[in-house]
Fold this protein.
Amino acid sequence: MHRYDFLLDTLETERLKTLSIWSQFKDSDMQLRPEPRARTPHEHMVHQCVSEDIWMKTMLGIDIGVPPLPEQETRLAFLLQYADASEKRLLRLSTKQEDWFEETTKFFDVERTHAWVLVRRIAHTAHHRGQLSSYLRILGRELYSTYGPTADTGGLFQNQAPVIYRYSGVSSLLESEKHGGTNPPLPGSGDKSPTERPDH
């Protein structure tokens, strides 16, 4: 164990969060473009796979030797591809010693540490995941927890709303999605507002 284990722990949970959001889209949603300048879910998945592959190879020296994209660009194929690639990268990162995380690398046109790049990568991934969460709302879908409660899992944390994940782990997600997926029931927000400013 070393002081950068928290980054590896975070990356591990980020894999599940990303795959969980992707899993909530249907095959028929993949070409949804809610605004002419917006990416489709398909394009978001392409971007996540390609950009993470580039960052890992060029900034962190992590080359897992697999193509960044699935041969057939279907929703399930993206789930399987990203799950496999992100697991391989996580395993490679887990072999790095503390001093590696503190070494500098080229981050576009500036020098940054490997640890800094990983933090930025996590933020980058979360940003795109948030965009896709908005798409699910546009589609009228319920939202499971990502970082905490949602309006569908009970509303606000201060009202004791629970955290409810769609899947407990990556392996159960992949196995279930191969057979159509499962949707644990969600309680909704009940009689309490899911926002701190319900009248605004």
The chain has two domains: 5-141, 142-200. Residues 142-200 form one domain. The longest helix spans residues 114-138. The mean pLDDT is 96.
